[in-house]
Protein 1
Amino acid sequence: MATIDLNADLGESFGDWRLGQDEALLPYVSSVNLACGFHAGDPHTLRKSVALAVERNVAIGAHPSYPDLLGFGRRDMGLTPDEVFDCVLYQVAAVKGVCEAMGGRLHHIKPHGALYNRAARAPDIAAAIARAVVKLDATLLLYGLAGSCLITEAERVGLRAISEAFADRRYQPDGTLVPRSQAGALLTDAQESVAQARRIVREQAVTSRDGQAVVIRAETLCLHGDGPHALAFAQAIRQALEADGVRIAAP
Amino acid sequence: MATIDLNADLGESFGDWRLGQDEALLPYVSSVNLACGFHAGDPHTLRKSVALAVERNVAIGAHPSYPDLLGFGRRDMGLTPDEVFDCVLYQVAAVKGVCEAMGGRLHHIKPHGALYNRAARAPDIAAAIARAVVKLDATLLLYGLAGSCLITEAERVGLRAISEAFADRRYQPDGTLVPRSQAGALLTDAQESVAQARRIVREQAVTSRDGQAVVIRAETLCLHGDGPHALAFAQAIRQALEADGVRIAAP
Amino acid sequence: MATIDLNADLGESFGDWRLGQDEALLPYVSSVNLACGFHAGDPHTLRKSVALAVERNVAIGAHPSYPDLLGFGRRDMGLTPDEVFDCVLYQVAAVKGVCEAMGGRLHHIKPHGALYNRAARAPDIAAAIARAVVKLDATLLLYGLAGSCLITEAERVGLRAISEAFADRRYQPDGTLVPRSQAGALLTDAQESVAQARRIVREQAVTSRDGQAVVIRAETLCLHGDGPHALAFAQAIRQALEADGVRIAAP
Amino acid sequence: MATIDLNADLGESFGDWRLGQDEALLPYVSSVNLACGFHAGDPHTLRKSVALAVERNVAIGAHPSYPDLLGFGRRDMGLTPDEVFDCVLYQVAAVKGVCEAMGGRLHHIKPHGALYNRAARAPDIAAAIARAVVKLDATLLLYGLAGSCLITEAERVGLRAISEAFADRRYQPDGTLVPRSQAGALLTDAQESVAQARRIVREQAVTSRDGQAVVIRAETLCLHGDGPHALAFAQAIRQALEADGVRIAAP
C-alpha cells in the first residue's frame, strides 16, 4: 500500500497580523512546518500553533529561515555556512523546546523559502543545516527538495532525509522546479495539480514542462496554505489520493 | 563550610557590537546567564557563549528578557502574563537546545533587567515565568531577587528557587534595592562591595542605607561584567570569599 | 456651517502581512494617519500608502509609535521623554520626506496606541512629542485626545492642536475614555455610534456611561478601519453627518 | 590647488552598544555618513550624531543600507530594485528630517556595505538608489565607487555624483577593489596607505596589485573609523595631504 506525507506550513502569523488558514488546513495534512520567528511566527503564535498541532495529532516540524521578517524569508541572503548553522540551531532549538513543553515532540525540519532553495543547490549550506540538526537531535528528519543536495548532505551526516515534491509547481526536465519568476511555474488548475500529485505517488514521476516524464521519488508532498484556492486544492488532492487507496501519514 | 554561587551575565553582544568582558570574567564566576536574543545576544553570540561556558565548566543559565533590543530590556513593557509566559518559554527553549547541542546542559533561568524587576514585585508575572520554566523542565533552577515574589512563585510550582543578592547595590530597610534612579544606589568602592559580599555570605545580612541590619538569605551573588571596574570588583570579591574559606560553586 | 475632520489609520500592513481595508476606507475620510515602521508599516507599505493618499487627496498624517512591532504599539513602554522625542522625530521625519518625494505634503501627527494614551495623561511625554514636531516643522498640526495634556503641551510650544473624539468609544463623566479592558468600552451598535458622532459635531458633547452630558470639543473624529463592521460604521457616520449638512474636511 | 574630501562613517552604535570612535575621528574628516537605523544607528544615536556633526561643521551624509542589523548590512540580500528604492527613500528621508530639525542640512548619500558593492556593479540597483535620492531632493550629492555604475546612474538622473577612492584598499588592474575575501585586500601599513592617498589626490592614480598604474579620478577618500589603527591612519593621511598643500573640504 502506497503511503505519502502531506505537509503544510503553519504558524506564519506575526503579532497582530494573520496569515494562512491554519485551522482549516489541518484536516488535510499529516505534518506541519512551524515558523520559528525569523521569517514569520513569534512566541505567542508558535505556542498556539504547537498546541493546535498537538491537539490534532499531526507531526510537527520546524521551518527555519534566514533572518528576514520584512521579506518573509523569500530573499536570498549571503549568510556564511557558519551563520546558517547558528541560525538553524537557534530556531530549531526554540521550536523543539516549545513542542516538548506543550506535550508534543519535534518530528522534522524543513528549511523555508530562500534558505530552502539555496540548500537545494549549495552543498556547503545544505551541510550546515544538516550539521545543526544532527547536533541537536540525530533522530530528527530533514525535509528537502527531492533530488537536491540537501537530501545528500542530510544522509551524509546520518539523518533520515525526506524527499519533497510539489503538486502545484511545474518541473523542468532535470527534475528542478521552474523558477517562480517564469511563466507557468505554478499549476493553477486543480485537476492538473491533483493529476500531478497522483502521478508522483503512484508512478514516482511528473510530466515536465516539455512533456517528458521525469522521475521524482518523494515521501512528502507540500500543500500550500495561502492563496484563494489553497483549501480547495488541499481537499481535492487528499480526496483523490485516498480514493486511490493511498495512506496519508507522516514518515 | 559556607557555599555561595557567583553569577554573571554573558553573551550580551549583538552582531558586530561587543559588550562585556566575557572571557576575562569567567575565572571569577561559578554560573553564567546567557542573553537569549530579545535584549541582547543572537544565534552566533549564543552558540559561541555556550561553547565557552561548556569549556570553562561553569553552570549555564538562560537570561530571558522583554523583546526590546533597542532598550536592552531595561525599560518596563506592559506585557500580559500570557505574553510573558510565551516569551520566556521561547527564549529558554532556544538556549536549552543550543546548550544540549554543544554538549552542555541548561542549569537555571534568571530573568533580565526590567522583567527581573517586575517579576520581583508582580505575582502574576512571576507566576507566568515560573510556569514557563516548569513546563519546559521541572529540574531547572530559577534565580530571583531574595525575598521577592519570584522566589515564592517559583517554589509554589515546585521549582527550586535560588535567592540572589547584590554585592554592589545598596539595600533599603525592607530588603529591596535602592532604585538606580536614586543617589547611592550603587556601591562604587571596592572595599565596601567586598564587605557587603562577605557579610551576605557569613551573616546572611546587609547594612541598609540607614544603617540597619537587614536579613538577606542568598544562595547566589550577582557580579556585574560591565563598567570600568567590573573585573577588579569580581576578582576582589572572589579572593575575599575564598580567603574566608567560602566554597564558590553553582547550586 | 459645522465642519469636522474624519481621520483613519492607514498603511498598517507589514511586509507580506495585510491589515485594514485601506482602499475601501478612503472614500469616507478627510485625513489619514500613516504607520511609520515602529508598530506597523515598512518602507514599501509607507511609499504605497503615501501614493494612495496623494492620489485620493486626503490630508496625510504621521502615526508614530513606541518601537514595538510584535505588540503593535499597544503595550506601554517605559521610554524616557528624551527617548520619545528621538523616536517621534525619526518617524515623522521619515514620513515627511516620503510624502514630499511622492508629491504630497505632511499635514499632521497623531501618536499611536499606547504612546497616544500616555501622551494624553503624562505632560512630560506630551511635551516631548510636541517638541519633536515643532523642531521638524512648526506648521504641522498635532492631533490628540480632546481635553488631554497633549493638547495643552502642543499649544504651549506654538503648534496648532487638533482635539480628537471617538464615535465608537464610551466616555467617562470626566471626559476620558472608558478603558478597553472594561466592559462597555466600545459602542458596538452602528446607530448608537452614529448618534454619538452627530452629538459631538452638533452639540460638542457626548453622553457618558452614567448618562451625564459631557462637553467634548473636537475638530476630528477617529474612524476605525479594522474589525468586521468598520466600513459600515464609517459609511453610516459619514452619511449621517453629510445629511446634517456638516462639511467633512481636514483642518 | 588640489582639493579632496575625506569622509568617514558615523553613528554606527546601536542602543547600548558602542562602535567606532566618532568624537576622535571628526577632526580629520570633512564629511560624515550617518547610519540610518537599518544596519546600525537608532533614533537616539542618529539625533546625537547629527548634533555632533552640526557642531563640528562637517558635511552630513546619509548612509542607507539593506535591512540587516544582525549582519551590519554587510551581507548581500536579494532585494528588487523597487525594494531598494523604498528602503533608500525611507532611510534618507529620516536622516534629512533629523538634520533639518537639528539645524543642519543633508549634503549627500553614500550607500553602505553590501548595498554599496551591489550598486557598484548592478545598474538596476544603482538606478533605484539614484531615483530615490533625486525624488527626495535633486540637489543632494551621491557618493559611489569611482568608475562604477553608481556614478553613471547618478549622473543619468541629474544628480551630482562624487567618485570615491580608498586609501587602505588594494586595487585590481581594472580599477575595482580586491575583494576583502582575498589576501592583500587591505593595506595594513600606514605609510603605504598614506602613499596611496597622496597618489590618488596628486596623480589621480593608484598602483594596482600587479604593479600597474590605474587611473582613479576621485573627489572623496574614505577613512575607516574602526580597527585599532583607524585614528592613526586618518591622522597620518590628513597631515600628509595638508603638507602637500591639498585643501580638505566637502564637495
Protein 2
Amino acid sequence: MERPRHQGMAKNTYMRWRLPLVCLLWEVAMIVLFGVFVRFDAEADAHWEEEKQEKNLTSDIENDFYFRYPSFQDVHVMIFVGFGFLMTFLKRYGFGAVGFNFLLAAFGIQWALLMQGWFHSFKGGKILIGVENLINADFCVGSVCIAFGAILGKTSPIQLLVMTLFQVTLFSVNEYILLNLLHVKDAGGSMTIHTFGAYFGLVVTRILYRPNLEQSKDKQGSVYHSDLFAMIGTLYLWMYWPSFNSAISEHGDAQHRAAINTYCSLAACVLTTMAFSSMLQKKGKLDMVHIQNATLAGGVAVGTSAEMMLTPYGSLIVGFICGIVSTVGYVYLTPFLESRLHIQDTCGIHNLHAMPGLIGGIVGAITAAAATEDVYGKEGLIKAFDFTGTYQTRTPSVQGGFQAAGIVVSLLMALAGGALVGAILKLPLWGDPAAENCFEDDIYWEVPEDEESDAYHMHNPDKASSP
Amino acid sequence: MERPRHQGMAKNTYMRWRLPLVCLLWEVAMIVLFGVFVRFDAEADAHWEEEKQEKNLTSDIENDFYFRYPSFQDVHVMIFVGFGFLMTFLKRYGFGAVGFNFLLAAFGIQWALLMQGWFHSFKGGKILIGVENLINADFCVGSVCIAFGAILGKTSPIQLLVMTLFQVTLFSVNEYILLNLLHVKDAGGSMTIHTFGAYFGLVVTRILYRPNLEQSKDKQGSVYHSDLFAMIGTLYLWMYWPSFNSAISEHGDAQHRAAINTYCSLAACVLTTMAFSSMLQKKGKLDMVHIQNATLAGGVAVGTSAEMMLTPYGSLIVGFICGIVSTVGYVYLTPFLESRLHIQDTCGIHNLHAMPGLIGGIVGAITAAAATEDVYGKEGLIKAFDFTGTYQTRTPSVQGGFQAAGIVVSLLMALAGGALVGAILKLPLWGDPAAENCFEDDIYWEVPEDEESDAYHMHNPDKASSP
Amino acid sequence: MERPRHQGMAKNTYMRWRLPLVCLLWEVAMIVLFGVFVRFDAEADAHWEEEKQEKNLTSDIENDFYFRYPSFQDVHVMIFVGFGFLMTFLKRYGFGAVGFNFLLAAFGIQWALLMQGWFHSFKGGKILIGVENLINADFCVGSVCIAFGAILGKTSPIQLLVMTLFQVTLFSVNEYILLNLLHVKDAGGSMTIHTFGAYFGLVVTRILYRPNLEQSKDKQGSVYHSDLFAMIGTLYLWMYWPSFNSAISEHGDAQHRAAINTYCSLAACVLTTMAFSSMLQKKGKLDMVHIQNATLAGGVAVGTSAEMMLTPYGSLIVGFICGIVSTVGYVYLTPFLESRLHIQDTCGIHNLHAMPGLIGGIVGAITAAAATEDVYGKEGLIKAFDFTGTYQTRTPSVQGGFQAAGIVVSLLMALAGGALVGAILKLPLWGDPAAENCFEDDIYWEVPEDEESDAYHMHNPDKASSP
C-alpha cells in the first residue's frame, strides 16, 4: 500500500529511551520513598492481634477492611475500567485511552499514597497505610483521569506522567487545605476531585491549544463498536458511583445514606439527559456522547452532599438539574469553548466534571448550612460534620461558609496549577504528536495490521475497490 | 451513495417532543412523590447514633448496609451491564439494547422505590428506604428488563417507558399478594421476577405481533464482535447470580446457603447447555445463542429455593434439567411460538425466564413442602419460612401449597397485565418503528457514519466494489 | 463464495456425539458424588441458629460469608471474565476463548469442590462446604485456565474437559502435600496455582507440539477490537488481584495486608512493563501483548508473600522486577521456547505465570525465613504461620526451607502431571483441529456469516474488489 502515512510528522514522537527512563527512574524513586516512609497501619499490621486487645475489639470484623474493602474495589474498577473504557469512544485511540489511563493511574496511586500520606497518615516519621489510604489514592488519581479526558489523544505518555506527578502533588495540597485547614466535608470529592481535576485539565488543554487540530478531525469521532466499549466505562462509573461517594464516609449511617443519595441522583440524571439529548437534536435522535457522559453528572454533583441529609428527593432534584446542564453543555458550550476560548476538550470534561463539580460544591454548602439538630439529632449533627475538638463550636451555617470557601480554593488551585503544568507540558521535550497524528494509536502503539487495512477500506471505499 | 434507506418508513418515529416530554414530566412526578413520601430508614438516617443505643448495638458493622451492600452492587451490575449487554448481540441494535435498558431501568428503580415502598416500607405516612429497598427496586426492574428482551428492537423508547410504568405497578401488586397475603418465600424471584416478567413480556409481544417482521430479518442476527459484547452480559449475570438469589435472604446462613446453591446450579447448567447445543445442531457446533442464554437458566430456577435447604446436589439437578429445557426451547419452541402462536420473542425469554421461572416456582414449592425439623432444626425451620405471628401454625406442606398458589397468581397477573399493557402499547401514539426498521439503531440514535458505510459494505459486497 | 475453506481438514472435529456424551455423563457423575458426599458446612446450614448459640456468637455478621463473600465474587469475576476475556485477543478465537473457558471452569469448580473437599473439608463421611470452598474451587480452576492459555486455539473442548479432570485432581494432591504435609503458606497460590498451572500447561503444549502450526500463523494475531476485549480481561484480573491474594487469608490483618501488598506490587509492575515494552521495540512503541499480560506478573509474584509482612516497598520491588522479567520473556524467551524447545505457548503463560510463580515462591520462602517476633509480634507470628499444634516449634527459617521445598514439589508435580495428561490428550480420540484450522472458531462454533465475509474481505482485499 502506497498510502503516505503521517506525511507531516514533523515532531519527534520516538519514545524508546525517554519513556523507559521516566518509568524506571520514577519507579525506583517510589521504591526508595516507600522504603523510607511507608508501613502498614495498625489494622493491616501483624501486631493487630495485640491492637485488638488494647481496643477491646471482640471480632476481626471490626477491622476497617470489612467496612471499606467492597467500596474500595468498586472505586478501583471506576478508575481503571470506568475512566479507561469511557475514553475508548474514539475510533482509533482505544489503546491509548485504556492503556495510558492504566499507566498514569498505576503511577499516580503510588505517588498519591506518599503525598496524601505525608499530609494525613504521618505518624512517628512513617506513613501508615490501610484500605482507606488505597481508596484515597484512587480518588486522587481520579482527578488526573478527569484531566486526561480534556487532553485525550493529543499528548504523549510522558506528558501524562509529568502531569500526574504535578497534579497529584497539587491535589494533595488542595485536599489538605480543604479537609484540614477549612475543615470542609467532601467525601465524594465534588470539590477536591471533580472541580479541581476538571478545571486543572481545562487550563492545561487551553495552554496546549492546537490551532491545526482539524487535521485529525476525521479521527475525533467514534465508530459503532467503539461507542459500545465506551458504554462499558459509562455503566461501571454509573453503577459504582454510590460506592465512590460513600467509600470514605463515616462507618454506619453516613456510608449507607451516601449510597442511597447517589443512587437517586444518578437515576434522575439519566432521564433528563435522555430528554435533552433528544430535544436538542433536530431529528430528535439520541446522541451517544450525551448518554455516555451526562448521565454521570448526577454522581458528580452529590459528591459533597451525599453523606449529608440531602434526602432522596433532594438528590433527585440535583440529578434532574445536572442531566440538563451537562447535556446542554455538550451541545452548546463545548463548541463555544473550542471556537472562542480555544479550549479543546476531547471528552467534554467541562460538562461532566467542571460544571457538575461546582454545582456539587454549592449543593454541599447549602446542605451543610441548612443542617439542624432536628434533622440530624444532636449526636448525629456532631458526627456528620465532625464538630469536635477545635470545631466544637462551629455551627452549620458557618460550616456552609467554609464549604463555599472550599469551592473557591479548589477552583483557584486548579487554575493556577493547570497553568503551571500546562506551561511545563508545552516544553518541546515530551514527544507529543503533531496535529495530524492526534487521536491515532499508531504513534505510540504497535497496532495490528489487519484492522488497519480494514479501517483504511472504510475511509477510502473508492480506493478499496480499485487498488 | 444512492442507497434508498428506510424507503417504507410509513410510521412517525420522530421522538423530539414526545420522548423529552415523557421523561421530564415523569421525572418531575418522581421528585414530587419522593418529596412527599420518601425518607431514609433508621439505618441510613443521621439519628442512627441514637438508634444504635436503643437497639443496644455495639458496632456500626451491624448496620444492614454491611450485610447487603456488596450483594446490592452485584445485582446493580446485573441489571445495567448484565441485561444491557446480553441484549447487544444484535448486529445493529447495540445502542438500543444498552441505552434503552439504561433508560427504562433508571426510571423503573425510582417508580419501584415508591410502589414497593407503599406496600412494604410505609410507616407513619412515609416510605423509609435503606439498602434493601434499593435491591428490591433493582429486582423489580429486572422483571421489566426481562420483558424488554421479548420486544427488543421492535419498540420505541416511549413504549418502553410506558411498559415500565405499568409493569412496575403490577409487579408490586403481585409481589404484595405473594409475599404478604400468601406468605410465600421467593427471595430470588423465580415467581415474582422471572415468571411474572417473562409471561408479561410474551403477552405484550404477542399483542404487538408484526406480520411483516421478516422485512428486517437480516438485522436479527449477530456479528462476531456483537456476540462477544453479549458474552459480557452473560458472564456478569452468571457470575453475580449467587448474589442475586441471596441478596435479600435473612442474614447469616440463609444468605450463605443461597449463594452456594445458586453457584452449584449454574455450574451444572453450563454443561448441559453445551451438551445440547452441540447435540441439536447437525454439524455438532456450539451456538452462541444458547451459551449466552441457556447457561443462566440454572440461576432462574433456584430463585425460590436457593435460600432453603435445597442442598448442593439438589441444585445440580435443577441446573442440569434447566440447561436442557432452555436449550431445547431455543431450538424447537421459539420457532414454533413464532410461526404458530405469533409470539415474536427476540431474546428467547420464554426459554431463559418463563420455563425456568415456572420450574423454579415448582422446585420451591416442593422444597418447602419437604422441609422438616430434622433438616432445618427447630429454630431454623421457623426462621427459614418465617413461621411466626399469624403463620405460627403453618406447616411445611401447607407452605408448599401456598408456594404453588404463588406460581398460579404470578402467571395470571402476568397474562392479564401483559394483555392490558400490550393493548396500550398498540395505540398509535408512541412512535414505534415500521417492520422494515426494526432491530436498527439508526431510527432512534445518532449512529456514527464510518461504521455504517462499513456495515453497508458488508451487506453489499458487490456494490462496494463498483460504486 | 468459492473460497475453499479448511481444505486440508484431515482430522475429524465433529463434536456432535462426543462432546454431549462427555458433558452429560460427567455431570451425572457430579450429581451422584455430590449427592453422596456434599453438604452445607455449619455456617451455611439452617442449624446455624443453634451453632451461633454454641459458639457464643452475638451477631450474624460473624458468619464467614461476610468476611469472604466480596472477595469470592471478585475471584469469580477473575476466573470467568478475567481469564475468559484476556484470551479473546486472537482475531478469530473469541468464542473459543471465552466459551471454552466458561465450559472448563464450570466443570472444574464442581470437581474441585469434591477433590479439595475430600482433602480438606471431609468430616463424618461428608464434605462440608461454605464460601471458602467456593473460593478454593475457583482458585483450583484458575490453574486450569492458566494451562489453557498455553494450548489456546489448538485443542478441542473435549480435550479441555479431559485436561480439567486430571489437572484438578493433581492440583488437589499437590495442594494437599504443600498445605498439609509441608505446612506451607500459599494463600495467593504462587506455587499451587501459578507455578503448578503454568508448568503443567507448558509440558502439555510441548507434548502436543504441532510442527505445521505456521499454517494458521495469520490467525495467531489480534485485530484492533479483539485487543480491546482482551484489555477487559486484563483490567479485571489486575484490579481484583488484591482480592485474589487476600481471599482465603486469615480474618483481619492478614486479609487487609495481603490486599495492600498486592495493590502495590501490581502498580509497580505496570511501570516496568511499559518501560521495557517500549525499550525492547525498535520503534519504541508499546506492545499490547505486554500490557495485557506482563502488567499482571506482579500479582502472581506476591501470591505467597502478600499476607506476610512483605511491606509495601517490598511489594514494589517484587512488582518492579516481575514487570521486567515478564516483558523480556515475551520478547526473547517465547520465540526461543517455540523454535528450540518446541513449546508453542499461545498466551505466553511462561512469562506471566511460570517465571513470576517461581519468583513468588522464592519471595515467599525468603519472607517467611526472615520473619521475626519483632516484626510480627509474638502472637502475630504464631498466627501468620500457624505455628500451632504439631508445628508449635517450627521456626521462621525452617518454615522458609519448607516453603522452598513447596516450590520444588509443585514444579515436579506439574512436570510429571503435564507429561501424563499431555500423553492422554495426544490420543486421537478427542477431535482436535488440524494445524491449518487452529485459532479458528469456525471449527467448533456456529459463527455469524456477515462478519466472516467481512473478515474475508479484510484478508483478501483484491478479491473483495473484483468478485
